[in-house]
Structure formats: C-alpha cells, structure tokens
Design brief:
Number of strands: 18
Oligomer: single chain
Number of domains: 2
Helix content: 25-40%
Largest sheet: 7 strands, parallel
Radius of gyration: 20 Å
Shape: globular
Strand order of the largest sheet: 3-2-1-4-5-6-17
CATH architecture of the largest domain: 2-Layer Sandwich
Structural class: alpha/beta
Strand content: 25-35%
Amino acid sequence: MAKISILGAGRVGSAMALDMAKVHDVLVADQSEEALDNLKERNPEIKTLEADLSKKEEIQKAIGEADLVISAVPGFMGYTTLETIIRNEKDVVDISFFPEDAMELNTLAKTRNVTAVVDCGVAPGMDNILLGYWNKQMDVQFFECLVGGLPEEKKWPFNYKAPFSPIDVIEEYTRPARLVENGTTVIKPPLSEVEVIDFPGIGELEAFNSDGLRSLIQTMPNIPNMKEKTLRYPGHAQNIMVLKESGFFEEKPIRYQDQDIRPIDFTTKILFNEWLLKPGDREFTAMRVIIRGEKEGKPFQVSYHLLDKYNDQTQTSSMARTTGYTATAAANLLVEGLYSNPGINPPEYLGAEGDATLEYILGYLEEREIIYQREEN
C-alpha cells in the first residue's frame, strides 16, 4: 500500500481517487468542500483536504507525505502545479493537459530524480501508449486518432455535454492544430477539415482537426504522417465556429456598462450550464486509432476501437473512466516499481517499454470493463 495524493476532486479526479483507494491510502485535495464531501460519502476511508491549489504552499501541504501524486487540476493550472510537485521530489502522473510544453521541466525532473508521466488520459494518453508500442514493432508511416466523449441524449444546438470544465473544452476549439504531413509539421485551424465518420454502435459522427498530437511531434520524428481529430455529433463544429467567428472566445476585455468583461469568461459562464454533465447523465467515449506502415518488409495495419459507456454500477462517467483509469494504471506501474525513468515521460514512453507494460495497462483497463478491440490486416 502506497500513500497517494490526488490534486483535484472533479469528475475525473474523484473517479481516480475511488479507484486508487481500493488498494492505497488516498488523500484528495480540492477547494470545493461539496466535491470533497461527495467523495467522502462514496468512500469514507478517503482522506480529504480543502485547499486552494493555485498556491504552492497548499500543494506542498497536500503532497507532503505522498509516495506518488496524481494531478487532475484544470489545464490553466497544470504546468505550475507540475513544477511544484517536481520541485518537491514526488513522482507524479498528470492529466491536466496544460498548453505549455512539459519537456521544459525535463531537466528539473531528472535533477530531482522524479519520474513524471504527463498527458496520461485517454487521448492524449492511451493512443500515445499504443503508438509508442507499435513504433518499436514496425516501421510506422501513418497514425490517426479519432476520439470524443458525447452524451447519449442529444440536445440542440450543441448536442454536447462536457465531462470537464468548459474552458478546457473551448481550448480545443481555439488552439491551432498541429499535424504532421509528409514529414513536416503543419498548422491548421481547429475545427477544420470536417469529415463524417460512421462509428459502429453509434452512427454518424463528425471529426475535425484538434491539437491532440502534443508530445508525439517531438518524440516520433520518424513517422511522416500523424493527425488527431475530435469527434462530435454532426453540426457541432459549425455551431462552435459561429461563436468563435463572432468573438465569443476572445480574451481581450470589452467595455460594457462601465465594466471590462472578457468575452471568453461570459461564454464559459453560459456554456457551463448548457454543457453541464449532471450526475447520472448517460454518455460514451468513442475512439479509433489506426497505425499503418510496414512490418517485416510487408504492408501492415493495426487498429484499435473503443466504445465505452457510462457505468451504472459505479455511477461513473465514461470519460472519467477512460481518462482516469489510464492514469491510475500508470500510477500503479510506478508505485509497484514496474516503471521508473527520471524526467518527463509522455505516455508513448510507457508503450515503448514493450509487451509487459502494454499488457499490464490493457489488462488493468479490461478489469474495469474498458475494452480496446484490436484488428490487424
């Protein structure tokens, strides 16, 4: 049994806490008393700490006795939180998906002898792990990941519910998308190149460019073609573009009735209620990963398909499960001494370890009824 500190008691943070508490001594820190109380009701053995995690001294208090830390803070807090964890010499698994380059902390992590696994969710996360594994098994020429979390019940106009903060979702719609084409990194607008995909068990979804490759652009320079696209119900991208082009996502304040208001803050407030995923709302996660190239001198393609739904038994959303349990699988790898590599570790590093590590992670997820269907041709 290890001592685990989890920073953030949101939907994903709570799911990870409940999962880790099956085996470990868990403390969860968050500024929301309500979120912490809800967590205690579900498992009274979990320790809680009301803390403002934007303050370094409160992070230090939360992680002081931990053998390992899991960071599930909002993206805008992620980088500074990770830096504080590393400076306090704690191994960490991070799912905050911050916009900064985590590799800028690599030297610090090595110096402090800290193994920091970052971006360890479903995507980025599991798709990186799969690519990291196959990049060692074959000559990869093409990688594509299509992924999205969606409600089963559609509600006009967005047909969307957010399992995490709307500001983090909007970041996907505003951050330029980096893709790799013919060996060159290219920048394309987010929400661009919309295509309709028929997903078994769901029907038609639309896929559009988003900035999901992240570390793969640096760590997989040998792969000439890579892209990640976000999945939504058809029509979603166009509706978001209307907001975007009308200025609702702008960060520069505008003057209204003697007040300076940032349009993005107003929009987030409105969309919080519109996109709120309420307890018990049924939703699903869909993902398709295609890896293509040559193996032993012959054309080879492997694909993974995921369709995961809200779990009635544990009352856990699919996005919390698929994101959180990938992270807790990695956390258990670290605390069990099965993986150690001081420095910043994007998930593809885990996959590159080979069969045993991949089988551990897939097996861990399968025990929790998260099944990646594999096909080869």
